[in-house]
Fold:
Amino acid sequence: MIRFENVTKTYKDGSIMALEACTTDIQKGEFVFLVGPSGSGKTTFLRLLLREEVPDSGKIWVAGKQIGRLSTWKVPYLRRNLGCVFQDFRLLPNKTVSENVAFALEVIGRPRHIIATQVPQVLDLVGLAKKSDRLPNELSGGEQQRVAIARAFVNRPLVLLADEPTGNLDPATTRGIMRLLDRINKTGTTVIMATHDFVIVDSMRRRVIELAHGHVMRDQVRGIYGYGT
Amino acid sequence: MAVPFEYVVKETSTNLWRNWMVSFAAIVTVAFSLSFVGVAALFRQEVDHATARWQSGVTVAIFMNGNVTARSDPQAKAVESQLSNMPQVAKETFCNQECAFVEYQKMFANDPTLRGAITAPSQLPVSFRIKLNHASQASQVGAEFTNQPGVSAVEYAKGEVEQLLKLSKFLQVAAVVAALGLLVSSVVLILNSIRLAIYSRRKEVGVMKLVGATNWFIRIPFMAEGLIQGVVGAAIGCGLTTFFASEFRKLISENKIQLLQPMTASTGETVIIYLLLIAFGAIIGAGGSALALRRFLDV
Structure:
């Protein structure tokens, strides 16, 4: 599903090494935690997958395509296969919950009748069916993140990328979000989650890829956070 | 990929409304700059018509009687040979009945009554058009032919005609210079308004990129915005052109610049000028937004 082969990425003309000769494989349907201290290359890893960045050297495959070779106009079609969730939710404040989710389908040109059936379905999945007409600022942080997950998942992507999705949430809310991500993973969606939260990593016992200084330090099938514990 | 029309209308109108002051400034600038171009073009046409007889330095016209219909007529030949012997004459040309008919049609382009009065070239007199070495010798040269057999009338280009031709040239240069300056500022203003629109929607644009909207899907509403500003500006510019042109005509008649013919441009010509202005507005709008998008929508 996803393969990194000797991927190196530097910033500022090579003076900052973000990833160095990184090689890893992620299979379809896996749940992977990407751990490591700040600056270890987690976010770069995700940005490379989204092709917001291009590697200096090495190859990256997503769903059988080498994305370094992808021409610019094909990048949007790559991103339709990758759902994205962030620490800061990135919801549109002037749109309601259902409008926020529908927007993701609208702008990739999905017909209206599909939007009308998909949006309530996915809101039901994330447990926000009753709040579909609220604005984001009327919701709690956990609820906002659920909306963001609904938006990322409504197009049924192959992979869900989550960059510290629980970074702004309290432990109880975090557990709820993790249950939701687990449910999404059980539908066959690959989930890659970058996180600092050792509690959830240790409790879920999923595959852990630890990055440090741009290198893969550890890759365990049923790992724990291991860092700082 | 097709971008739904409805979506473009919705997004574009929101954008225009959100930054209406900047849009307004862009539209007004386009309108004024294009109206300068329009007035200059219209005036050029009008001067061209009113002075149809006095183009390229012709200052004297000798009209023959109705019974002289060809250059080979003995009376015409006499005039011609006398002209070619005069040292003051730089060049003489013969205007036959077809030539006279074309000229007549042009001079009364917007006056159907007068234009309809003459329906065939045979109703018009032939004439000689004389270009002199010194325009000041016009009356002296003309006087020699006034009583010539076969000559019905001698006409001179008056000072006003020369002034008008000079004014027209000056206006064309001035309008082009002013319009160029204003055109640059209208492109910049449109660029700026599109930039503001992109900036005020950067969150939406970010989400659109994230969920895989194609670049065209993101671009088209902004391009439509620039295009609308350009075209609306040009349409207002056409209105301004009409207004300025009529004020200008008043000014000319009030200052007693007496012309043989009224200042008019035919409806067809006016329509063409207006269509060109609108096409120009569209180009400015599209150009401004293309510039803005190139810099701010890199993936």
